Amino acid sequence: AQRVTQPEKLLSVFKGAPVELKCNYSYSGSPELFWYVQYSRQRLQLLLRHISRESIKGFTADLNKGETSFHLKKPFAQEEDSAMYYCALSREAGGFKTIFGAGTRLFVKA
Amino acid sequence: ETGVTQSPTHLIKTRGQQVTLRCSSQSGHNTVSWYQQALGQGPQFIFQYYREEENGRGNFPPRFSGLQFPNYSSELNVNALELDDSALYLCASSGGLSGELFFGEGSRLTVL
Predict the structure, then answer these.
(1) What is the pLDDT of residues A87-104, one digit of tens each?
(2) CA distance B32 to B2
(3) Taking a C-beta distance cutoff of 8 angstroms, is the pair A88, A100 a contact?
(4) Chain B positions in Cβ-Cβ contact with residue A95 (cut-off 8 Å)
């Protein structure tokens, strides 16, 4: 069965420290992977997707098919990065039938 | 460009009742997905509608049903409400091949 696992419910780091939010998936096909973010009092929104291989707000994520992982990384965390982060997997091209992990709350301390 | 809007924002029902939640998709989007998000959990995929047809369903019983209209707006209907149906219900629209989901703010359902 398709599954997205985010092992950490809460991650707390100091400002300026590196941050890595873990995401593992199980899927037999070729999935599309995404990271979504929800800032306080805002709606859920896309942060980045593996296909575009872009860096957004200093965050990057590399798809590792061998380890079935899609960890989100940022070398220097900022206080404004504090938010809820969800890893998501789409089972078909174009974002169809996207499933989400349980989420990791990132708290960046001053 | 109008974003995804959902109504109502909050509602309270009792066990056994039925509820209808509504979603207007973002302009130009022909796909609507519905999610249930219980407290402390990630969004759980209920189903997806593409051009008025159901295009995939998650692990939810048949009492969860939906519709998509010609203007691509959508409804989620839940019959015979149970206490565990209490959750935030999110609607997301998408279009094209980018795969990006655009979310509404959700409808918070409380079942007493």
Answers:
(1) 999 876 655 789 999 999
(2) 15
(3) yes
(4) 31, 94, 98-101
**B85 phi/psi in degrees, rounded to 5:** -80, -10
Nearest CA in chain A to B37: A102
Mapped onto helix, strand or coil, the DSSP state of residue A99 is strand
End-to-end CA distance of chain B: 37
Joined together, the tokens standing for residue A90 give 């789409």
Terminal-residue alpha carbon distance, chain A: 41
Q: What does the pLDDT look like over B10-22, one tens digit per residue?
A: 999 999 999 999 9
Instruction: Please choose, from the candidates B64, B41, B51, B60, the residue with its C-alpha nearest in 3D space to the C-alpha of residue B93.
Output: B51
Task: Report pLDDT for A91.
Answer: 74
Collect all residues of chain B within an 8 Å Cβ-Cβ radius of residue A93: 97, 99
Q: Where are the beta strands (DSSP E) in chain A?
A: 3-5, 10-14, 19-21, 24-26, 32-38, 45-49, 60-61, 72-74, 83-92, 96-100, 104-109
Residues of B near A (Cβ–Cβ under 8 Å) read: 31, 33, 35, 40-45, 48, 50, 55-56, 58, 90, 92, 94, 96-106
